[in-house]
Amino acid sequence: xxxxxxxxxxxxxxxxxxxxxxxxxxxxxxxxxxxxxxxxxxxxxxxxxxxxxxxxxxxxxxxxxxxxxxxxxxxxxxxxxxxxxxxxxxxxxxxxxxxxxxxxxxxxxxxxxxxxxxxxxxxxxxxxxxxxxxxxxxxxxxxxxxxxxxxxxxxxxxxxxxxxxxxxxxxxxxxxxxxxxxxxxxxxxxxxxxxxxxxxxxxxxxxxxxxxxxxxxxxxxxxxxxxxxxxxxxxxxxxxxxxxxxxxxxxxxxxxxxxxxxxxxxxxxxxxxxxxxxxxxxxxxxxxxxxxxxxxxxxxxxxxxxxxxxxxxxxxxxxxxxxxxxxxxxxxxxxxxxx
Length: 339
Fold this sequence. Notes:
Order of helices and strands: HEHEHEEHEHEEHEHHEEEHEHHHHH
Largest sheet: 6 strands, mixed
Radius of gyration: 22 Å
Number of helices: 14
Strand order of the largest sheet: 1-5-8-11-2-12
Number of domains: 2
CATH superfamily of the largest domain: P-loop containing nucleotide triphosphate hydrolases
CATH class of the largest domain: Alpha Beta
CATH topology of the largest domain: Rossmann fold
Structural class: alpha/beta
């Protein structure tokens, strides 16, 4: 993953008025609001209203559902919409980023008049953490490197700048790591940075979003009850066939390339057939259903000129099969669906 500075130089990120962050890009990424990036989202209910309401009352949100059902895409869409709206407001930041020390400091030298004259649109980034069992608290909060310089983690930056902190697969984190999110999830909305002995009050435009697949929890680590009960939640699932076809059609567009709507419908029907296989008799009983994400990838390949058979084999059959028998069963369903 390319560092933030490299992305900015490549024109993929707009340089931030807060300064250049020094961080480990293997732990998390930063995406800034960009009005030119088109993110397709199809409402399946009142999920946008729920998100907006929780953001307005300074509360967090959990997104629950199987992999590939749009949890990250939905967060990115809401980040874009809220970023556009916040860009019309002005406020005085509580902290400024000091390039020399790499720390956020309170700007005590400015009086109220000067602060008022320096109001600006809030910096509204999207910080993304991909949680694993090897993720430590220091990766999230930050710590000192071998040269004695403090390197802020995503939660350190988020606590000072605001924006959205998305914690993917939060249930994969060890229980002791999950607990570091409790303070920002509570009404007080604070973040404790141990290495700096600093308690930071979150700005109003800071929101924590957690995402996880509850289906994994019976086999792997479960989300702590004390963490779960701090998170209002939205359930994500695979949509109806006609709706999923519409999603695949729109989400797979790349520039002028687009898949035919009839192909999108067949891909959606294929996914529905795989997911509904008889769990008692099918060779695919232990397999997880095909995600909407994989359908979009298959559609992108087809739109780019790949045959439907090759696209389905690369994007659906190979990822889902671990044996020749499973691959044969999936091939048969692909053929049955006219692909």
